[in-house]
């Protein structure tokens, strides 16, 4: 079964192709036979990179013609040195990561008109992502016709959260109108929970885990009985932890104050909270943790403050997830910061030794791939896991078509 995965972001389009043979899935993720990424960049040009057959190619694209660019990307599957298919008709199914599925969808779903309408209806809750998902779906319809397409929703894994965690303490009528905690990064949290269970050697349903997805966007999930029972992101991906350019949770009265005293409107508030806050807001320059750590080592006081704030809010978030579990069988770090920033893992873990969680400094420095970086006398394993969102999407497609 040849499965094409499209993972659309607000400023990028990543894609890969898996070739799954046999009647069962392998125990570990396969490498895709083809990978491509489009960075829309700054108009008028974006950049497309393709990798297959040991060959890498790069080309400029018109960033104002996104649908056409996706078609050009797909053509690299059947043309030139990156050719891996004789025709696009060999593709059996296309899986899409979709950020927001609201309360409508709690599992991967074959895309039809109703699903597309739901994705469109939820654009106000994910304005930077859901339009890109629809664009990708439309491009596939244009190029591949009636090939089955599957939506894998980031919100799905959190859909079984208990109401006491999902409902906000505002008038209940707003909950009935759809204002509730949805949670995001669900595909990553689910995969990392399953992978941690595999490393521990026990069923996921028997474990209490906290998964830390730390990248430009950051969120935590408390996993118990195989489901997410609490998470830090909420109605939108803005709530929760301090992030690269997003504020995370702040006193909502700050926004009222800025509106009343300074005349700020919703667009300006949205711009500040999503693109000018977080690490970038404190450093004044960049939301990249690598920059923060470099400047921190140089004695930059604002970088030091940004790092300390990030760790403080991360520890506080882990504490809240711990309270939702009543115990802990594993702590997982994943995504760009989680996988590569050893100092973040070190500083996060050091104040949790009172619950039996103890990190091994050497393992933490030298970890490669998935593994346990806990000390030998730690009562709780600490995992670094490479998140495999694309593989998780591919396996969801495989299960749907096999059922």
From TrEMBL:
User: Gene3D superfamilies, per this entry?
Assistant: 3.30.420.40
Source organism: Limnospira maxima CS-328
- Note the site residues: Transition state stabilizer: 185, 246
GO terms (BP aspect): acetate metabolic process; acetyl-CoA biosynthetic process
Identify the enzyme class.
Answer: transferase
Say what the protein does.
Catalyzes the formation of acetyl phosphate from acetate and ATP. Can also catalyze the reverse reaction.
Subcellular location(s): the record lists: Cytoplasm
Give me the residues that bind substrate, please. 97
Task: Report the catalytic activity.
Answer: acetate + ATP = acetyl phosphate + ADP
- InterPro entries, alphabetized: Ac/propionate_kinase (IPR004372), Aliphatic_acid_kin_short-chain (IPR000890), Aliphatic_acid_kinase_CS (IPR023865), ATPase_NBD (IPR043129)
Q: How is the cofactor bound?
A: Mg(2+). Can also accept Mn(2+).
User: Where does it primarily localize?
Assistant: cytoplasm
Q: What is its EC number?
A: 2.7.2.1
Q: Which UniProt keywords apply?
A: ATP-binding, Cytoplasm, Kinase, Magnesium, Metal-binding, Nucleotide-binding, Transferase
What are the annotated GO cellular component locations?
Answer: cytoplasm
> Where does this protein act, in terms of pathway?
Metabolic intermediate biosynthesis; acetyl-CoA biosynthesis; acetyl-CoA from acetate: step 1/2
Belongs to which family?
Belongs to the acetokinase family.
Q: What is the protein name for this chain? A: Acetate kinase
Tell me its cofactors.
Answer: Mg(2+); Mn(2+)
Q: Which GO terms describe its molecular function?
A: acetate kinase activity; ATP binding; magnesium ion binding
Subunit structure of this chain's protein:
Homodimer.
Which Pfam families would you find in this protein's record?
A: Acetate_kinase
State which gene encodes it: ackA
Where is the signal peptide, in residue numbers?
none
Active site location: 154
């Amino acid at each position: 079964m040849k499965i094409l995965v499209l993972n659309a972001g607000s400023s990028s389009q990543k894609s890969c192709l898996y070739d799954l043979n046999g009647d069962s899935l392998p125990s570990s993720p396969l490498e895709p036979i083809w990978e491509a990424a489009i960075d829309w960049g700054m108009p008028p040009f974006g950049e497309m990179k393709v990798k297959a057959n040991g060959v890498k190619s790069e080309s400029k694209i018109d960033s104002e013609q996104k649908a056409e660019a996706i078609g050009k990307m797909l053509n690299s599957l059947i043309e030139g040195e990156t050719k891996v298919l004789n025709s696009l008709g060999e593709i059996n199914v296309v899986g899409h990561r979709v950020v927001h599925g609201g309360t409508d969808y709690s599992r991967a779903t074959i895309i039809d008109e109703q699903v597309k309408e739901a994705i469109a209806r939820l654009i106000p809750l994910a304005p930077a992502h859901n339009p890109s998902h629809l664009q990708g779906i439309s491009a596939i319809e244009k190029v591949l016709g009636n090939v089955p397409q599957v939506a894998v929703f980031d919100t799905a894994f959190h859909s079984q959260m208990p109401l006491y965690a999902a409902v906000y303490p505002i008038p209940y009528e707003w909950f009935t109108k759809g204002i509730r905690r949805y949670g995001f990064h669900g595909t990553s949290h689910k995969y990392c929970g399953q992978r941690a269970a595999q490393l521990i050697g026990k069923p996921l349903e028997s474990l209490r885990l906290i998964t830390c997805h730390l990248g430009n966007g950051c969120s935590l999930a408390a996993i118990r009985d195989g489901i997410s029972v609490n998470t830090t992101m909420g109605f939108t991906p803005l709530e929760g932890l301090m992030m690269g350019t997003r504020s995370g949770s702040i006193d909502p009265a700050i926004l009222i104050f800025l509106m009343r005293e300074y005349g700020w409107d919703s667009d300006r508030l949205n711009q500040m909270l999503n693109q000018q806050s977080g690490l970038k807001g404190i450093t004044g320059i960049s939301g990249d943790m690598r920059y923060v750590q470099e400047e921190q080592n140089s004695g930059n006081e604002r970088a030091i403050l940004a790092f300390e704030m990030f760790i403080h809010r991360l520890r506080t978030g882990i504490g809240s997830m711990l309270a939702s579990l009543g115990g802990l069988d594993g702590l997982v770090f994943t995504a760009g910061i989680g996988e590569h920033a050893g100092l973040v893992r070190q500083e996060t873990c050091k104040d949790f030794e009172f619950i039996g969680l103890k990190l091994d400094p050497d393992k933490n420095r030298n970890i490669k791939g998935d593994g346990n970086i806990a000390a030998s006398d730690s009562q709780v394993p600490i995992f670094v896991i490479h998140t495999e969102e694309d593989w998780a999407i591919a396996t969801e497609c495989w299960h749907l078509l096999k059922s």
